Amino acid sequence: MEIYGPYYRFKSPTQTEEDTIKQLESKELWGKPVRGNGIIPKVKAYTSAYPGVAEERQGIKFTTVVPPDRNLSPGQVFWSNGREGVQIEDGYAKIKLLTITRYP
Amino acid sequence: MADNYIQQAVQFEEIIPENIVAMIRQEPSEISELSELEFKESYDDLDYLTFAILSLPSNNKVALVRHQHPPKAGTEICVSQNQQNVAKVIEETLNQINLTSDDLTWVHPDYEQIYRSRKSPLLLKAENRPKNFSGIDFSNCALKEAQLKGANLSKTIFQNAELGKANLQEADLQEANLIGTSLRETNFQGANLRKANLQRADLREANLQGADLREANLEGVDFQRANLKGAILNESHLANASFKDADLELADLQNIAWNNETMWFHVIGLHKAKGIPEDLKNQSNYKYYLKLSEGIEKFRQGNLAEFQEIYKQVLAELEDQEIVASLWNKIAWLSVLYNKHSDPESYAAAQKAVELKPDQGNYHDTLGIVLALQEDFSSAIKEFEIALKSEDVQKWTEDFKHRRERWLESLKAGENPFTTEELKTLLNVEY
């Protein structure tokens, strides 16, 4: 079993404290299209920790066995429909996480 | 962030194309200075972002996007889902903001042609024909990552050129001039380098598996961590060359010319190399080279105790403090990677290496890992800071350095970056 990660998401309007609690409880990560005009739902994260001050980078750190999409820009990682382990539900892409913790 | 900011930002989010097709090194503030383009704040499903919409002469629209928390600097060029002629759109975008293709740090592989063309237009033009550059002078040229698989490069001149990470697999480089050329991580698998001149070339981490280096001039070449499995080195000139951590398993060494400055310590697979000349076998340190090579094989077979035992036997007999320090460091480094935890023996070995050669940043690096695994974060931070300020940094790859900076950042945040996965990765990429 290959493990992918750790990956990171940081506090934002789409990574709220409420989202974090849900993710920690469900060990799932959900994603809409990247932006409002997009059509393909994707789970999204950063590939490494942001080298900033601790207050600016509160979020989650996770690993998964679901392989991410290929040919992505440096620093970002997506999981789109069609990849093994990516489920689509109500317009959201979702993946199961192997581990998830608060970060930092 | 305030709610009214989020509501306003939603409006912007709707108009920002989402497909990332390229990255440029400049930050939004620099782009604004160059082009007077105004960036606005918004967010998307990943993070907060700043963006600017650019209308191009072709009537296409692109977005320049900078997310708030990416691990690397730079700005994304984004296009809409159904954008045609993406390579042309990237070019237009760069023109509009007064940048050039030299400012691109990444291009989506589907549109990579433009990226490759900026690096070596000559090589791109030749893409659909046989790549025949025999005898051409590429001295001092920037040819990093050039795709020259199977090319005819006989007698070609690459003196002092940058060919790092290039693909020269099965290329014909017979009698080529590669003096002082940067060839780090370059792929020469199965290449013909007969009678080539590689004096003082940088071949660290290069893949020379099965390459033909007969009669090549390899004086002063740095082969550190290079893969020379099955390479033919017959009658090559190896004075002052370094094979530290290089793999010579099944390499053919018949009639090589070497001198006392040729570095054979820490060679991997030497005990399985062929045609080792008698004068090398008679050298006083040869028995140690062989033992250490066998020790590494024990490690690869998963027998840590035998590896440590062999190394300690050699340590008991050696006096050269530089070599002794490097052996202690190797014991500490491989032991922690293997055990995935620190123990008194690893700590003592790492300490000895640092005590003997305190100027070696790599030894402080090893001690840093050992200390971090003992949960002594403050001492580990000090060791990594010494390592990152040492002269050894100049020899590190970007990835190697970035990894250390990330560790330091994590340790300062009170988090141990040396997870089992991280140590497993280290074992794969840095051993």
Describe the structure.
The complex is a heterodimer of chains A (104) and B (431). Chain A is 10% helix and 38% strand. By secondary structure, chain A is mainly beta. Chain A has one domain. In chain A, the strands form three sheets. In chain A, strands 1-4-8 form a three-stranded antiparallel sheet, covered by helices on one side. Chain A has a three-stranded antiparallel sheet with strand order 2-7-6. In chain A, strands 3-5 form a two-stranded antiparallel sheet. In chain A, strand 6 and strand 7 (92-96) form a beta hairpin. The longest helix of chain A is centred in the N-terminal third of the chain and has 10 residues, at 17-26. Chain A is globular. The termini of chain A are far apart. Chain B has 431 residues and is of the alpha+beta class. Chain B has three domains: 3-118, no CATH class; 133-283, 3 Solenoid (Pectate Lyase C-like); 319-429, Tetratricopeptide repeat domain (Serine Threonine Protein Phosphatase 5, Tetratricopeptide repeat), CATH 1.25.40.10. Helix content of chain B is 37%, strand content 8%. Chain B contains 14 helices and six strands. Chain B has helices at 3-13, 28-35, 86-96, 112-119, 121-125, 278-281, 286-300, 304-317, 321-339, 344-356, 361-373, 377-389, 398-412, 420-429; strands at residues 19-24, 40-43, 48-55, 61-67, 75-79, 104-107. A six-stranded antiparallel sheet of chain B has the order 2-3-4-5-1-6. In chain B, helix 9 runs parallel beside helix 11 (361-373), helix 10 packs antiparallel against helix 11 (361-373) and helix 12 runs antiparallel to helix 13 (398-412). Chain B is flat and about 75 Å long. The model of chain B is unreliable at 118-129 (pLDDT under 50). Chains A and B meet through strand 1 and strand 3 of A and helix 1 and helix 13 of B.
